[in-house]
């Protein structure tokens, strides 16, 4: 069985999230997107955890949950997840690092929350609780709560909150987790990096690369996700992450029950920390430009925020383009609504976009199927030649992207001004 999972999401109780994030809505949008497994997010928040208890029941698959009123087998499988924000001092530096924790039972989730509370965490204040514990201490508590807990550094390269980030992170996982490092099975690539960037660090061959949306609204689900092939279960996915690391790939059984097939990724240039820069003064630099300016904003003289591309370059010990043996695949995508919006030359969320989106899902079941697998001629027949051409260009990476920097998302363009002159009237021209 091939299926997609999105572990890192949030509820309406986390800061800066949609008030419509409820379990039924998450279930609805997970199906639209093509996700089989979805993180609950925020299980340490007492009200959200109460809703989890009230609305979810154990799924047929061990370690997973479904809505109690689920009426068919296609209902979303939920996995208990939470993101922890650690703010502390280590090595003479302030550290701010986010960590994703997953557990296979309500008892383990409750136990982990209790352990955090005894260490001073105010769990009711935010679905993503802020703790004064080190990342290693958070991992220790997770493993006390359940020995098979998954502890995954979230958006590992983000400057301010990534374990390898330039502003408050570490130069290696070992520096952060010390003797617990072998128990860290995976890291999350985040929106501003992709597997080829991570492959440049040989030390990261010891961990699997996984991707999640970090969605703050239901429409953002599956903008990044992880693809599995095999048994649908908590332990199956955990084993896939364990043996999905290139260095561990040769250790797995000849026929593993679940395999890490790869990841669904943003184009990293679109991520809001890909380039270096200073958003207040619209300074956006690649690594070479940053070196030329000695890392200082020419307007105010302050250091620019060092983005993911520069940070990878600093820590890399491999040339670009070298893939480790045993590393899984990846696919870079643009969300379907954004593709349709550009093809129709309107904004996402408009009635025209929604009508085309719904029509494509009625024909092809879900968004990931449209983006990855559906036949282009069939897409053209179900929508329009221009939408099919846009999807084709995303699949073949024929894009123009203005890179994101210092908290500003990059801008993706599928068609150029020259293209539009050639297409007019765009919707009536046969492009394929």
> Which structural category fits the helices and strands?
alpha/beta
How confident overall, as mean pLDDT?
95
Number of helices: 15
Approximately what portion of the residues adopt beta-strand conformation?
15-25%
- Roughly how much helix do the residues carry, as a percent range? 25-40%
The CATH superfamily of the largest domain bears the name Metal-dependent hydrolases
Overall geometric form: globular
Report the count of strand segments.
17
Assign the CATH class of the largest domain.
Alpha Beta
- State the low-pLDDT regions, or none: 426-432
| Major sheet description | 9 strands, mixed
> Any idea how many domains?
2
CATH topology of the largest domain: TIM Barrel
**Under the CATH scheme, which architecture of the largest domain would be assigned?**
Alpha-Beta Barrel
Distance between the termini: 32 Å
Return Rg in Å: 21 Å
Keywords:
single chain; 432 residues; alpha/beta; TIM Barrel; 2 domains; 9-stranded mixed beta sheet; two-stranded antiparallel sheet; 17 strands; 19% strand; globular
